[in-house]
Amino acid sequence: MLVQQILNSKATTGVLTVSPDAKVSEAAKVLADNRIGSVVVSADGGKTAAGILSERDIVRELAAHGKDCLDAPTKKYMTTKVVTCTSQTSAQELLSQMTEGRFRHMPVVEDGKLIGLVTIGDVVKAQLSELAMEKQALEGMIMGH
Ligand code: AMP
Hints:
Layout: H1 3-9, E1 17-18, H2 24-34, E2 38-41, E3 51-54, H3 55-65, H4 91-101, E4 105-110, E5 113-119, H5 120-143
Parallel strand pairs: 1-2
Antiparallel strand pairs: 2-3, 4-5
């Protein structure tokens, strides 16, 4: 299975972004309002990713230095070395990179442009539905219909 199929199976398309100068509290609101765990930080309105800010980055900073971080810009706490994939990356490769890097979100980039975002949950869901279809097809073959 390829990232393209996972993107096709997602109910929502597009990537939610915040500006690098947006406050961490604003990014937290985007995360909460949209029930997501990470937001891409983009300086050009979503064309490219300057970084990624996860709920984990915010919690880590809150625990270490308290609530002042909420007024700081997202660029202060975002991860700047963003690991990305393309629509042709395999689900297997995605899972191994996420497991090795210990992150759950991966922006999809095509020709230098951000075209989507896949989460570990999207990958698992798409793989489960592929397995269910394969099972149905095999049962159909065995039963002769
Ligand atoms: P996550 O599990 O995705 O919520 O994020 C865990 C940590 O990895 C946080 O520090 C994120 O900023 C970072 N992170 C999330 N996604 C990526 C990614 N695609 N590339 C690099 N770092 C990431």
